[in-house]
């Protein structure tokens, strides 16, 4: 690790929240402490990140932050050399190293700097130049050669001793061309630390360089007929500002409170989500994040099996995150958090506006009209969105953590960006493993499988998960108990052990999962306080059992795993993911063990794999319209009744109000009619004298 | 039919579009023609509605509306008496009756007037008064008795000879109380035409009248702690107006064109949806509507099996539709269409603002950042929404037909309103058939199953449906063809005959359906031009085979049926739904026949049943937060490439622009930061000199 050893004094006066990401100062301090003990390191910094407080200590502190001992502030530090890495923990409060473990046979994440340097390496490699020549690209055009460097996945020839990238090759005739229309058919393998090409995979049958561009930049669109001219602006204004408050990184909005963390790997981490239920602060989730992803590609031809990116564990959803722009990525009134990481030199770098927090109108929250007299209530909803967007080479993942006024929490991911592409020879058959989305361009089938890590605290730390399937009642049609055959019910199956919890989605029963506190019974329904996971985009892992992806992505074999909570069990494909062989499978399969551990009324973690299978089409090219995936966490038997009843209605008329021609009218006065004067009409009988019987503030 | 016979002259100069709903004048004219021939009718008018033009005639006219013969304007007229109905067709162009068929043993829809009169009938019935007395309600309090009148479903005792309603009974202590907290345990049966109670179903074990209210009106919320005080307004303004045009009822927006119809039964009907693909007007769907619904309840105890409302076929999604209010049901700049129906007297009545058309921002349409230089494109999306909301007694259905700029069509339904409730005795067990959502209030399990009728014209009238399942490739792990086990593909199964098309959803394969034009091959992908149906909320019909609901709701037995197009096959549970026994099953099961008809490259109709199964919870009470269901129709292999590329980006910087510090910046300038001055940041390297290299208009 280059640079001088500095002695920083840890700025104790700052008192960061224990969940806060490390500040630039803390990153510098952690590095300084390591340098002080170990001197000039020969290695690259790979990560300097918050080592999250032990849960037990943190829970104790959260009960009384002014009096209980503050959890120790710790940094985890990873440095990496040619054939080793050090996994360290630094105690920032006491300025000492708690752990400095040398590991071999493991590879930590590939960093942006690693990726960004690869193009230079391949452009000057003689064998790459030779291969380009075979495709008709002369040596003087090597500046037109580009590559998307991916981790190698796993290559049996090299194992995990050398730190490798595979360079997915492209060409640009012009600097502004989209390179994905010009894939090259060979694949150099680059030694990240030695900074050299160590092999090139060349297919037996060659595919010529494509000649036809498909671009999306303004000059290309102008040449193709120009932009649509009939779109008029929609402005979103919040003249009185936002309805949320931010204290440090703790956000309060509509009875929700939560801490917005962020790390280089998972990106956004939401901690200690609670709901203020009429003065009673009720815990919901201790921690919530996207913990891992895998994107297996479905072409079995060599060497495409290596394309199965673990975008979070191999590259980092934080490291790859975008700087967001006001009025662009999000509209309205916005609060941003920056993200701070260490670069390879161990110096702090900042990504501005990494996390966006904003509100949106969400349409009708609830409505009812009495058909007798047209008395009505209409309440419009609002949502709060905590979002980030990260770019994984070709793809963009837009991640939206959405809070609703009815206490529902939603995770929406929009997939956009550009398809990974490979070359096709004229007349070549895709064999069904991909689609020719553009002449000579094969976009392979793939899945995006995300692992949502939910650490629940539904009214307390001891929770239990039940599988819920819709089921027909017993008794055949004509029987006394089910004469007309219409009996049906919610069949609930408790997951008592880890083994029982390992389960798949079942669309035929509209399967959901209840995360329950079995110690809290609803006074009316007599059912357990719970949050229900409603997730409908749950494809099974298509790579086969025993194969490379199946072995490496153990978490993705099933939709649900529930484990007993343990500190540091954060990364379901293992802590260091690149170049793992999957023998043994790391992360979740290790923690599952023999599956006999009790998860009944314990501190548990639920791992949910969801996503989609993508069979590309030309409409996805050259840049994909965003495709959304969404799941919900809905309170069930948790609140006494609809918790959003106290949201100010837009319009209310009661039966007695209708008689007296009185209504409460808080309609948005900015709305208007499109074309003509037309009387706005409530569906109420007769004229309304608007009367407020209560005050808004 | 009461009232004087009038002789109207049909206003030919009006030239309504052949898909337009009947105007008030046309309704009056149709009735006048019938009265002229049949004199004063003794019967009630049940429906006067557009008899839609024959498809062949309509398609011919659409090719050249100025020169081809305009399809004849026809009204369908239904009148109903005590034991008969007349089903008629009136030729409005020539002022004559084309059909006047007397039918017996069938019951047409229950009308709002029928429902609205029922409360008066039960309040004065001695046996109802007696039953109320048993529950402690004195005769002088009968004005506090309410009922939600439902069609009877089917009751073996009465069959279909008498026109019946079942009165689901409630009580209100105060006029403004929500009655659903005070269900009464008995159920009067009302003869609609005789206007009298003919029976009362009384349970063996009585349930006392509830005493605890759960209200949501302002005074109740004020008493319960008041409204949230921290919500600040979000305004949506469109200073330059809307981006759509309306010509009569034909809407044009972002290359889409379609006609917005509306009828008393289905509500919104979208006709002749086309897409202007760079000057080529390409047909997508000839007709699209919600054709039927069934809401079976899962409690097998007598007489709850009768609760399985066919909201469209028994009551009418048009008849029950709400008048929408500006800045309330929808925000922004709105265009409304009114709806005109005939009342029981045959006179036209208008529901103002029955259909809302408006635009919304829809977040990121597509985005990509090049990790090399942070050159980026961000384009925000827009959607156009055609919506209506209808109130089916307790429930509200908010129906949104949504058009996206990437040529996707989405149907979203939000369920809100109030749960149907029944009385519970203290200590009574729900037996799992329902949930005690409030003390003494049992909300029964139920399903909402909607039937989407899609009449496609994907690049022409001859289309074919394929089932698409994700599937593992052949070859075991280690085999030459699938060494690493990662092969997967889209398995497509053609539905050649009606029988083959009758199919269910399969979540384990992420099943979708492609509606293809097998005569149109994509020049790049070599696959058929298609629209893909992506629908993930597809519960199976839980009432059992052979039971009452299964028999009556034939369409709901499977997720998909494809039939060959035939004029007048519009209503999949039959044309006249109330009191059908299901023996034989009407509608779709009749049209399926022996299932041998070819649907391969034919003019076809796809019937898709989707929805959700609802196991109530206290959070749904006393009024339900809106629960959304959504499905997509996405173009696949239809366009040459992403059809939204010509939407003006919000921000673009090209690699060459980044070098020259130039970018195109069309960010919304209304957006601002929430709390402090913070420099907006694009994620571009260095300062940007904003330059437009093209013009917006």
Automatic annotation (TrEMBL), chains A, B:
Entry note: cofactor: Contains 1 topaquinone per subunit.
GO function terms (MF aspect): primary methylamine oxidase activity
Stored SUPFAM superfamilies: Amine oxidase catalytic domain (SSF49998), Amine oxidase N-terminal region (SSF54416)
Annotated ranges, domain Copper amine oxidase catalytic: 234-645
PTM text: Topaquinone (TPQ) is generated by copper-dependent autoxidation of a specific tyrosyl residue.
EC number annotated for this UniProt entry: 1.4.3.-
UniProt keyword annotations, A-Z: Copper, Manganese, Metal-binding, Oxidoreductase, TPQ
Pfam families referenced in this protein's UniProt entry, alphabetically: Cu_amine_oxid, Cu_amine_oxidN2, Cu_amine_oxidN3
UniProt cross-references to InterPro entries, sorted A to Z: Cu_Am_Ox_Cu-bd, Cu_Am_ox_TPQ-bd, Cu_amine_oxidase, Cu_amine_oxidase_C, Cu_amine_oxidase_C_sf, Cu_amine_oxidase_N-reg, Cu_amine_oxidase_N2, Cu_amine_oxidase_N3
Copper amine oxidase N2-terminal domain segment(s): 17-101
Keyword Manganese carried by entry: yes
Subunit-level organization: Homodimer.
Cross-referenced PANTHER family: COPPER AMINE OXIDASE (PTHR10638), COPPER AMINE OXIDASE 1-RELATED (PTHR10638:SF86)
Record's protein name: Amine oxidase
Protein source organism: Discina gigas
């Amino acid at each position: 690790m280059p640079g001088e050893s500095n002695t920083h004094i840890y700025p104790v006066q700052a008192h960061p929240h224990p969940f806060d990401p490390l500040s630039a100062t803390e990153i510098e301090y952690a590095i300084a402490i390591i340098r002080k003990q170990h001197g000039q390191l020969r290695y690259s910094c790979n990560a300097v990140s918050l080592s999250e407080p032990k849960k037990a200590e943190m829970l104790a502190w959260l009960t009384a932050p002014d009096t209980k001992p503050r959890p120790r502030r710790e940094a985890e530090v990873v440095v990496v050399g040619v054939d080793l890495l050090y996994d360290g923990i630094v105690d920032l409060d006491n300025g000492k190293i708690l752990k400095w473990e040398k590991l071999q046979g493991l590879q930590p994440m590939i960093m942006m700097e690693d990726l960004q340097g690869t193009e230079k390496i391949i452009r000057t490699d003689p064998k790459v130049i030779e291969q380009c020549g075979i495709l008709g690209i002369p040596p003087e055009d090597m500046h037109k050669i580009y590559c998307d460097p991916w981790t190698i996945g796993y290559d049996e020839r090299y194992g995990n001793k050398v730190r490798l990238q595979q360079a997915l090759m492209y060409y640009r005739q012009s600097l502004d061309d989209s390179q994905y229309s010009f894939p090259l058919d060979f694949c150099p393998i680059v030694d990240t630390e030695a900074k050299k090409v160590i092999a090139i995979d060349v297919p037996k049958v060659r595919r010529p360089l494509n000649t036809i561009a498909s671009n999306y930049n303004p000059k290309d669109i102008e040449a193709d007929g120009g932009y649509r001219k009939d779109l008029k602006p929609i402005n979103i204004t919040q003249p009185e500002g936002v309805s949320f408050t931010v204290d440090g990184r703790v956000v309060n909005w509509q009875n929700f409170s939560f801490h917005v963390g962020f790390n280089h790997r998972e990106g956004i981490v939401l901690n200690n989500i609670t709901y203020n239920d009429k003065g009673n602060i009720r815990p919901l989730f201790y921690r919530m994040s996207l913990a891992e992803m895998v994107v297996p590609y479905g072409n079995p031809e060599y060497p495409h099996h290596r394309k199965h990116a673990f975008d979070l564990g191999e590259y980092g959803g934080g490291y790859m995150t975008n700087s967001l722009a006001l009025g662009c990525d999000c509209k309205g009134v916005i609060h941003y958090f920056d993200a701070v990481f260490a670069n390879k030199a161990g110096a702090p770098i900042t990504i501005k506006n990494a996390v966006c927090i904003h509100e949106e109108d969400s349409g009708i929250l609830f409505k009812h009209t009495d058909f007798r007299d047209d008395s009505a209530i209409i309440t419009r909803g609002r949502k709060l969105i905590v979002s980030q967007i990260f770019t994984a080479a070709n793809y963009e993942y837009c991640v939206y953590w959405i809070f609703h006024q009815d206490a529902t929490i939603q995770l929406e991911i929009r997939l956009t960006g550009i398809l990974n592409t490979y070359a096709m020879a004229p007349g070549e058959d895709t064999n069904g493993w991909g689609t020719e989305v553009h002449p000579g361009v094969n976009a392979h089938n793939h899945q995006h499988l995300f692992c949502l890590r939910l650490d629940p605290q539904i009214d307390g730390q001891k929770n239990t998960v039940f599988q819920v399937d819709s089921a027909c009642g017993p008794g055949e049609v004509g029987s006394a108990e089910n004469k007309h055959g219409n009996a049906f019910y919610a069949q609930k199956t408790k997951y008592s052990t880890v083994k029982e919890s390992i389960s798949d989605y079942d669309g035929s029963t509209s399967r959901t999962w209840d995360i329950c506190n079995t110690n809290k019974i609803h006074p009316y329904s007599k059912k357990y306080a719970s949050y229900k996971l409603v997730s409908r985009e749950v494809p099974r892992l298509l790579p086969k059992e025993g194969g490379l992806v199946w072995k490496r992505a153990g978490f993705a074999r099933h939709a649900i795993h529930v484990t007993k909570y343990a500190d540091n069990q954060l990364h379901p494909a293992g802590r260091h993911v690149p170049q793992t062989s999957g023998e043994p499978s790391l992360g979740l399969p290790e923690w599952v063990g023999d599956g006999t551990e009790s998860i009944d009324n314990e501190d548990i973690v639920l791992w949910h794999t969801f996503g989609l299978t993508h069979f590309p089409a030309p409409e996805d090219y050259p840049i994909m319209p965003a495709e959304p995936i969404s799941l919900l966490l809905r309170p069930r038997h948790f609140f006494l009744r609809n918790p959003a009843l106290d949201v100010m209605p837009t319009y209310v008329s009661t039966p007695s109000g209708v008689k007296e021609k009185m209504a409460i009218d808080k309609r948005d006065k900015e709305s208007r009619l499109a074309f003509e004067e037309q009387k706005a009409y409530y569906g109420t009988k007769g004229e309304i004298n608007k009367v407020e019987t209560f005050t808004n503030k």
